[in-house]
Amino acid sequence: MSTDAPTDVRYEVRAGVATVTIDRPDVMNAFRERTMLELIDAFDRADADPEVGVVVLTGAGDQAFSTGGDVAMEHAFDRHEGRRMARILIRLSEAVRGVGKPVIAKIRGWCVGGGNELNLCCDLAIAGASARFAHTDSRLGNSPIWYATQLLPLVVGERRAKEIVLLGEPCSATEAAAMGWINRVVPDAELDDAVAGWCERLLGNSPQAMRLSKVSLNFAGDALMPSVRHGFEALTQTYESPEFREGTTAFLERRPPRFR
Question: Is the domain covering 9-189 a CATH 3.40.50.2300 domain?
Answer without folding.
Answer: no
